[in-house]
Design goal:
Layout lengths: L8 H10 L2 H16 L19 H12 L4 E4 L7 H14 L6 E5 L4 H12 L4 E2 L3 H5 L1 H5 L3 E5 H4 L2 H9 L1 E7 L11 H8 L1 E8 L8 H11 L7 H6 L7 H13 L3 E2 L12 E8 L5 H10 L2 H16 L9 H13 L6 E4 L3 H13 L5 E3 L5 H12 L4 E4 L14 E4 L6 H9 L10 E8 L3 H13 L8 H6 L8 H10 L3 H32 L8
């Protein structure tokens, strides 16, 4: 249905008074441009995304955020459906239209770096983070920067809160927003105190205990959207009394400021199968010779302990167990040699080691690492997509790249941070993968990486989780703690006799976090299900 543009009288009068086709054209162009800024039927951001697969439910969600909810909404997609991508699309759309300039993203500490990488790689938007040294050197200057990703635990501290509250933000994004569920907490008070035009709250599980928590979240988005909390609470005595909740649920649905895709629109993830391949430590010849020369079992034990300790501190990059791991890697690569595989390594020194080995074996491979230029990275991916069956990749090299044409990952070594492990898996185990995913983990016996893998596998079944769930589980721990730092402290600040007990305690904390997450996920599904899907 074609329609003509109707110009306000002021435009027509000014055009006639000033005369000339040029003036008329400029005025009409100016008016058309301003009008288009308010029309979101055609998303400008879709042509500016990098290696991002978008789906109809995501595009429709972004349109509704922009048009229906006017940039203030709770994105409540299930884990793995792409809330981060949707938020990034909203941010990019506003930036392209010149509607936002100052942006603040608040996340749990464990997700700060991931958000920074996602925004940079996928959306070409650069952010400072609360890990930057400037925050410690000059907090006032740090918080005046136009785009910041910060740990919410850092932002809520007394020394930072006043500075944040005095700033004016065009867009604020809060990930894992269920941590704002209680209005008496510092988290809720921080977000409420911010001067913000647009606000995106992201949570796959917005209700942790009862619907009053959702009431508190939506009050941040649209103060006064409901009646008083006292009246609302009267309708929600307990989380499990379904009959009493129906009235409150109906009110939420009628006044919702929440966007959630229909489950029927979202593809189900295919399973992932993980395999542990333990190997023994291989010591360099120099250590073996020195041990033999000095004699006795005690010297040998001390030398081996010294070497193991130093290697665990990553002083000898790639040496610990490298020989045994290389032998195991050769065997894996010889199986189905034409099948595409990704070998992830943590250290650049190990890349050199494996590159030499693969060349000696005559294997066809391509290297992908963070030090490469953008064009070199693009070329490497194209070669891997085409003729090369093997991609040798560092941690940073795999960020933001969708490699679903491959379905096998080999972790030559494992980082201490489970978020980094999940990001590796997420390169292939995500929406768009058409085959089952296989993950092979090479670990050296009796080392820190084996402790970490044991905890993650036994306590939370990490390799059975949907990509994105590990962040939600870690979020149930102390949100000011980084898991890798907790692991490092458990290893370094204990004696040999204490270590096992400390790691057991860490494992139990993770198991408790997983249990709480499962309980909350079940409650949210019970409360809302498809009834709360976008309409």
């Amino acid at each position: 249905i074609p329609v003509s543009i109707t110009f306000p009288d002021a435009f027509e009068s000014r055009s006639a008074a000033e005369g000339g086709d040029l003036v008329d054209f400029k005025l009409r162009s100016e008016f058309t441009h301003l009008s288009l800024l308010q029309v979101f039927d055609e998303l400008l951001c879709l042509h500016h995304l990098r290696d991002v697969d978008t789906y109809s439910y995501q595009i429709e969600a972004v349109r509704k955020v922009l048009k229906q909810f006017r940039g203030r909404v709770l994105l409540a997609d299930e884990v793995g459906l792409g809330k981060t991508v949707e938020a990034g699309m909203v941010l990019k759309e506003y930036l392209l239209r010149g509607m936002v300039e100052r942006v603040l993203i608040l996340t749990p500490a464990s997700l700060v770096k991931q958000w920074q990488e996602e925004m940079s790689v996928k959306f070409d938007v650069r952010f400072a983070t609360s890990y930057d040294s400037l925050l410690r050197k000059d907090p006032a200057s740090f918080w005046t920067q136009p785009r910041i990703i910060a740990s919410i635990a850092t932002a809520r501290r007394a020394e930072h809160l006043d500075r944040l509250a005095s700033q004016s933000y065009d867009l604020v994004i809060v990930d894992e927003a269920h941590h704002l569920k209680n209005r008496s907490t510092a988290n809720w008070k921080l977000v409420n105190a911010l001067q913000k035009r647009f606000l995106l709250l992201l949570s796959a599980t917005p209700v942790q205990n009862n619907l009053v928590e959702l009431y508190n979240l939506l009050t941040l988005l649209k103060p006064g959207i409901f009646k008083t909390e006292k009246e609302f609470r009267a309708k929600t005595p307990t989380p499990r009394e379904k009959k009493e909740q129906r009235a409150a649920k109906s009110e939420l649905l009628a006044n919702k400021q929440t966007e959630q895709p229909s489950k029927s629109e979202a593809p189900d993830p295919l399973p992932a199968f993980a395999f542990l391949i333990p190997v023994s430590i291989t010591f360099p010849d120099a250590f073996e010779s020195r041990s033999a020369a000095e004699g006795g079992d005690l010297v040998d034990f001390k030398l081996r302990s010294e070497f193991t300790h130093l290697s665990l501190l990553q002083v000898f990059d790639g040496l610990l167990g490298a020989g045994s791991k290389q032998a195991a890697l050769r065997q894996l690569l010889q199986r189905n040699p034409a099948e595409k595989k990704i070998v992830f390594v943590h250290h650049r020194a190990t890349v050199s080691l494996l590159r030499q080995m693969l060349r000696q074996e005559g294997m066809d491979f391509v290297v992908f690492e963070g030090a490469m230029t953008g064009s070199e990275k693009d070329r490497a991916i194209e070669i891997f997509r085409g003729e090369a069956p093997l991609l040798l990749s560092t941690e940073s090299g795999g960020e933001g790249r969708n490699l679903q044409f491959c379905n096998t990952i080999i972790n030559f070594d494992l980082p201490w941070n489970p978020m980094a492990i999940e990001q590796r898996i997420g390169r292939i185990h995500r929406i768009g993968q058409a085959r089952d995913v296989f993950i092979f983990n090479l670990v050296v016996r009796h080392t820190l990486e084996q402790h970490i893998l044991k905890i993650l596998d036994e306590k939370i079944n990490m390799f059975e989780l949907v990509v994105g769930e590990i962040g939600a589980i870690l979020g149930e721990l102390d949100d000011d703690a980084d898991f890798a730092e907790m692991v490092f402290a458990a290893w370094m600040e204990t004696t040999e006799s204490e270590r096992q007990a400390v790691f057991n305690d860490l494992g139990e904390k993770l198991a408790g976090a997983k249990s709480r997450y499962d309980s909350v996920k079940s409650l949210d599904a019970e409360l809302f299900g498809d009834e709360f899907a976008a309409s």
